[in-house]
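Async update (no meeting this week)

Hi team, since we skipped the sync, here's where things stand on the single-chain job. The sequence we agreed to prioritize is pasted below, unchanged from the tracker. I ran it this morning and attached the output directly underneath so nobody has to dig for it. Comments welcome in thread, and please keep replies under the output.
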Amino acid sequence: MTMDIRLARIDSRLLHGQVATVWTKAVTPNRILVVSDNVAQDNLRKTLITQAAPPGVKANVITIDKMLKIYTDPRFDVFKALLLTESAQDMVRLVKGGIDFSQIGINVGSLAFEDGMTTLTDAIAVDNAGAAALKYLVNDAKLNVSIQKVPGDKTQPILPLLEKHGL
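Output:
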């Protein structure tokens, strides 16, 4: 067996109100895994994220390599995980490392705008590297990658938005 990943979400805000309340109720995880090399090295962000976990759910901040190690470790089969990455590039590293998201797909919540990025929706902006990573997840990894802020919203496939903006 492997770890039960109930939601794989790309969200530059990581663990915030919508994730801690609405998504946690929808997917009923017992563990929130924030998978980020950057955050794992930032004690302040790590502390804030672990404190933001809702009651009854433990949050951990781990590196991408650590996630790849524990994914198939039977000791972690008890995890019913909500997995969060800050970027599509981090999600690609997980996929290339052997994590199977084929049953659940990838949810894109929010990607904050920075200079040089293209705005796809009011909550999603990408640069060329982010767009390439999202296209890899859809075209090469054959995953369902869609935008959905909260569970009640209709899902929107990411690829047509990338194509519409010439990415």
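Quick observations from my side:
The chain has one domain: 4-164.
The domain at 4-164 is CATH 3.40.35.10 (Fructose Permease).
Reply here if anything looks off.
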